[in-house]
Amino acid sequence: MDTSGFFSAVSGKALAIIIAVLVVMGLAVPDTYQTLHTLWSKNNETYSHGYILLMFVVYVLVTDFRWQKFSPSFWPVPLALAAGLVWLAANAVQVMLLQTLVLPGVLWCALAAMVGLRNSLKTLVPVLALYLALPIMDVLVVPLQNLTTWVNTQLIHAIGITAYIDGYDIHMPYGVMRIANGCAGLNYLLAGVCLGVFYAYLNLQRLSLQLKAVALIVLLSLIGNWIRVFLLILIGYESKMQSELVYEHGFFGWVIFAILAVLFFFYAKRLEKQDGEFVGSGAKPELKITGRMTTALVATMVAFVAFPVWWAQTNSQQNAQSLNVTLPGPLQSLSQSDGELSRIGATYEGHDFSQLYNGQQGAYRTTLAVVSYRTQAQGKELIYYANQPAAGLTGSATMTVDGVTVNAAMTRRGQAVFWLYKIGDSVVTSDVDAKLAQLKQIFSTPGASAFILQVDCRGNCAGPEEIAQALGKQIGALKDIEVK
């Protein structure tokens, strides 16, 4: 069989195992993979290099024979189990960032189970490079945006363009250009770091030279973005904001990046000459798949998927259950009514159950809304930025009514609104406390509900305090509503 050319430099067994590991993780945490797919498939966005980076990481791993010496180990099993628990905790509070951060660690655990600690350390550079395609790097956006604004402010002053700079806005005689988040250059910086890291890893041995190569591409990536933004400002100024580049300039930035990348490779060749004789990936190893190696790898993956699979099965059972509401005594005079939450201005996206109740409590007309989630997921959660107990809330605060702490606010229409959250058996008012309650009850997979009492005082009440004095028992009874 002819093994010359490309395939002679690829370890087929390593490739098959890595693909199998990635597939198993995807089957265990499909929502997390879907989030990454959405992130990586956006053209000309910050993380649009994600799929390219993943393929290159796999390529580097299967062509670098220096780590491919099977020495099965079982110590990664508890690490993989811990990774699954971290994923479960992140999923319970719907923090998708933490869910994605777990994945490269699980891949490394699988490799370590195959080849042992010493050999797995040789894979850290390509595996850790995967974090360059995860949204943790968003923390750099504002500093880069500020730096880009400062540099271009100096350049504008240096050449004498007529412009007034207010924060990120550049006011010119023909219009306003804004150095927005996309102008920070994070996408070019991450692409440059990927390029520099892998070039140094594959072609240089001395640490000082590797650091020089990475530092150079970082500098060139930053300079390239500054040049891009400045040229766009010049083009906008000279064309009186009529040039198409002012509005569609994604490809323009990559052209500048490519030119500077060529300069990087010229310099990197000089670094290679300063390096010692490079020790390549070595001869293609003869990898023997033994029962011990298979057991170690399977045990590691089972340890990771245990919690996600348990969570999926539990959620499936929860979703099949019906919900019933039991109102406490002070609220039993309210009558069940038809209608959607939108009728009362409330919004809770993706909720599994809602019910409205209307009635007259003394001089006030009241509406009670019960909103529940059997299970929660990203974008289908009780605590979500788009959710609200009523439209047009103003002056939200907490207050104690009949010994119960509730949220209280007025609407622009003159309604008083009182609400709280119930996570399992925990009654809370703040978003943070609701998330913590979900985390504390992670293994009981509690249902989550919002209980909202809207009081129509026809614009004549001075504030929630006045309503609380009249309807204290009804407001305090919100904590006693049962949804089962």
How would you describe this structure to a colleague?
This protein has 484 residues and is of the alpha+beta class. It has two domains: 9-312, no CATH class; 325-483, no CATH class. The chain has 14 helices and 13 strands. Strands 5, 6, 7, 8, 9, 10, 11 and 12 form an eight-stranded antiparallel beta sheet that branches. Strands 1-2-3 form a three-stranded antiparallel beta sheet, covered by helices on one side. Helix 8 runs antiparallel to helix 9. The longest helix has 32 residues, at 207-238. The N and C termini lie far apart (66 Å). 32% of the residues are buried. Residues 1-7 have low confidence and may be disordered.
Q: Give start-end ranges of low-pLDDT stretches.
A: 1-7
User: Averaged pLDDT, please?
Assistant: 87
Number of domains: 2
**Radius of gyration, taken over Cα atoms and rounded to an integer in Å:** 29 Å
Please trace the helix and strand order, writing H or E for each element.
HHHHHHHEEEHHHHEEEEEEEEHEHHE
The portion of residues assigned to helices is 40-55%
Helix tally? 14
Inertia-based shape: flat
Beta-sheet strand percentage?
A: 15-25%
In terms of structural class, how would the helical and strand content be classed? alpha+beta
| Quaternary structure classification | single chain
